[in-house]
TrEMBL record:
The keyword Transmembrane applies. This is GOLD domain-containing protein. It is a single-pass type I membrane protein. The lineage of its organism: Eukaryota, Viridiplantae, Streptophyta, Embryophyta, Tracheophyta. Belongs to the EMP24/GP25L family. One of its GO terms (cellular component) is membrane. It comes from the Eukaryota. It is found in: Membrane.
Length: 143
C-alpha cells in the first residue's frame, strides 16, 4: 500500500513540475487571410525560444495545396532572426540575444484562408544561471 501511495505522489509531483515548466508556453489556432503578426515578450537575454507551427487546413473544401505560408521572426530592435518561406509546418528554436518583445509575422499568399496552429515556448533556467554566476557549483570550484 505504501508503494502505491508513493507512486501516486510521484505522478502528482511530475505533473506539477511539468505545469511549472510550461508556464511560459503560448499556443493559438487562428485563421489567416493575408498577413497576421503576433508578439511574445522574452523576459531574459539568453532564453531559448522554441517555435512551431503547422497549416492544418484551407478554408475551401475544393482547395488542397502545399503552398504553405511565410513566417518572419524579428527581435526587439527589429532585427530579423528567422525567415521561412512556403512552409506547411516548421519547428525551430533560437537563443534570444536581447530581452523584449519578439514579433512573429505570417503571410499567406494563397487565395484561400488557412488555419494555423502556432506555439511559442520560452525556456529560462534561472536556478542554473544563478549558480554559474555566483560560483556556487562545487564541481567547478573543485577543479
Amino acid at each position: 500500500m505504501g508503494l502505491l501511495l508513493s507512486l501516486r505522489h510521484s505522478y502528482v509531483m511530475m505533473f506539477v513540475i511539468i505545469g511549472l515548466l510550461l508556464k511560459e508556453t503560448e499556443g493559438i489556432r487562428f485563421v489567416i487571410d493575408r498577413d497576421e503578426c503576433f508578439s511574445h515578450d522574452v523576459k531574459y537575454e539568453g532564453d531559448t525560444v522554441h517555435v512551431s507551427f503547422v497549416v492544418i487546413k484551407a478554408d475551401s473544401p475544393w482547395h488542397y495545396g502545399d503552398e504553405g505560408v511565410d513566417l518572419v521572426v524579428k527581435g526587439p530592435a527589429g532585427e530579423q532572426i528567422q525567415d521561412y518561406r512556403d512552409k506547411t509546418g516548421e519547428k525551430f528554436e533560437f537563443v534570444a540575444h536581447k530581452s523584449g518583445v519578439h514579433k512573429f509575422c505570417f503571410t499567406n499568399k494563397s487565395p484561400y484562408h488557412e488555419t494555423i496552429d502556432f506555439d511559442v515556448h520560452v525556456g529560462h533556467f534561472s536556478y542554473f544561471e544563478q549558480h554559474a554566476k555566483d560560483g556556487n557549483d562545487s564541481s567547478i570550484n573543485s577543479i
